[in-house]
Amino acid sequence: MIQVSETTIWQALDGINDPEMPISLVDMGLIYDISVGKSGVVEIQLTFTSIGCPGMDMILEDIREAVESIPGVTDVAIEVVWSPPWTKEKLSDRGRMLLKAVGLSV
User: How confident is the model over 14-27, as pLDDT tens digits?
Assistant: First the structure.
């Protein structure tokens, strides 16, 4: 069995952009935790910018598709959490730079 690393999962998630913003889910600070079990089960905790996020289903589908495509992943368990709530302080430095480049105030 292929052992999957958390780094590989983070890299896959960094390739998924928020559908409303020109930056990745990782740079948005939406991914709170990742764990990889020895059997290849990946558990991901994430949040959204709001409870009514219109891209929620699309983001969950994109996450599942990206992570399931990694060799050694046997299942993906995604938990949406609301605590702590997302704030703009969770943006990465790269995320802030990208948002400022498109004219958004952060």
Answer: 999 998 888 999 99
For residue 20, the one-letter residue type is E
Rounded to the nearest angstrom, the gap between the alpha carbon of residue 61 and the centroid of all alpha carbons in its chain is: 11
CATH: 3.30.1330.60, 3.20.20.30, 3.30.300.130, 3.40.50.620. Which one for 6-99? 3.30.300.130
Say which amino acid occupies 84: P
Tokens of 78: 């995604």
Residue 28 has pLDDT above 80, yes or no: yes
CA gap 65, 43 in Å, rounded: 14
- 84: preceding bond cis by omega (within 30 degrees): yes
